[in-house]
Design brief:
Helix content is 72%, strand content 0%. It is mainly alpha-helical. The protein has one domain (3-239). The radius of gyration is 19 Å and the shape is globular. The two termini are 30 Å apart.
Length: 240
């Protein structure tokens, strides 16, 4: 069975699960359902892509697994969580990806981090690292553009996470927001697609040989989350 069809069947099963869990009915209609579908397809694709990545150093495996886990958590965050919860998992996915790339060639730093948890790398330093990564030198323009976009989205998500969502309200009133569907599903979908478009592109580029080995339907899964420019870039690299 082609993976796109399998993805559709899996989404239908997820919708059925959420419906039986007494989720608000308007989550399964129009723009809200479209946001759910996007979140599910991202999680489905990330699960596949992580399984296809080879030669992963042992010390970086936890970061890759965490990326997959946090990506999966986005779907229930769309359905049941607050906006802050959704943005928290999206931002966490950015951090997971950047840490994976950074520690890929920094085993000693990874060991030191386990001994001294406060010695973590800043987002700025990890963004700079991937932009200057030697093996990606010939793709520097594309890497720089996507890394900068990812950094901008990270800052945008951080404003939600660190901002105040309950102002001059009783806590009992503020808690109602946690069970409400997203008030701007189209805006959330745009943010989500941008974040994971950058992640999927950079992860595929970082593991270009593995991307080249993907079957057609597997590449189709990845490309559904990329812009035309990103697809053209990877297609050119795939054929080079």
């Amino acid at each position: 069975m082609r993976l796109i069809e399998l993805q559709k069947e899996d989404f239908a099963k997820c919708v059925n699960y959420f419906q039986t869990a007494k989720t608000e009915k308007n989550m399964f209609q129009g723009e809200s359902k479209s946001l759910m579908k996007t979140a599910h397809s991202i999680a489905f694709t990330m699960t596949m892509l992580v399984q296809k990545i080879s030669n992963v150093p042992e010390w970086t495996t936890p970061y890759l697994n965490q990326l997959r886990s946090d990506t999966i958590q986005i779907l229930p965050s769309v359905v049941w969580g607050a906006k802050r919860t959704l943005h928290l998992y999206e931002r966490a996915s950015i951090e997971d990806f950047l840490r994976y790339v950074y520690f890929f060639d920094h085993k000693v730093e990874h060991i030191l981090l386990q001994m001294h948890p406060k010695r973590f790398q800043s987002i700025d330093s990890m963004i700079d690292w991937i932009k200057e990564y030697p093996a990606l030198k010939r793709y520097r323009k594309a890497v720089s553009e996507n890394s900068n976009a990812l950094y901008s989205r990270y800052a945008e998500l951080s404003r939600t996470i660190h901002g105040t969502t309950i102002v001059d309200q009783q806590i009992s009133e503020g808690l109602k927001d946690f069970s409400k569907p997203k008030v701007e599903p189209l805006k959330e979908k745009k943010i989500m697609k941008a974040v994971f478009g950058n992640i999927f592109f950079l992860l595929s580029l970082f593991h270009l040989e593995d991307f080249r080995q993907l079957q057609l339907d597997e590449r189709t899964l990845v490309c559904q989350h990329l812009s035309k420019v990103q697809i053209q870039s990877l297609s050119g690299l795939h054929n080079s």
